[in-house]
Amino acid sequence: MAGPPKKSFPLRLDPALYAALERAAAADFRSVNAQVEVLLREALARRGIKLTPAEPPRRGRPPKEQDNA
């Protein structure tokens, strides 16, 4: 049930900035990684840069296949 592949890269942050990200992520019930992605998307939207919407992860069981034999 893996979603689309994501690009990974190393990111070095000031410890105080990372601590602030952790607090913001915890307040929104997100991981720090997800919080950074949300903040980046919001910043790009404010600049008028449009992205294709992220495909939401599929949740739950896959539908049962019906046998028409």
Notable characteristics:
single chain; 69 residues; mainly alpha; 0% strand
Tell me about this structure.
This protein has a domain at 15-46. The longest helix has 15 residues, at 32-46. The mean pLDDT is 87. With 69 residues, it is an all-alpha fold. The protein has two helices and no strands. The chain is elongated, with a radius of gyration of 17 Å.
End-to-end CA span: 28 Å
Overall helicity: 40-55%
Count of alpha/pi helices: 2
Morphology call? elongated
Residue windows where pLDDT falls under 50 for at least 5 positions? none
List the helices and strands in order.
HH
Question: Mean pLDDT score, rounded?
Answer: 87
Number of strands: 0
Structural category? mainly alpha
Proportion of residues in extended strands: under 5%
The gyration radius over C-alpha positions equals 17 Å
Question: Major beta sheet, specifics?
Answer: none
The gist of it:
The chain is mainly alpha-helical.
List the helices and strands and how they pair.
Elements: H1 15-27, H2 32-46
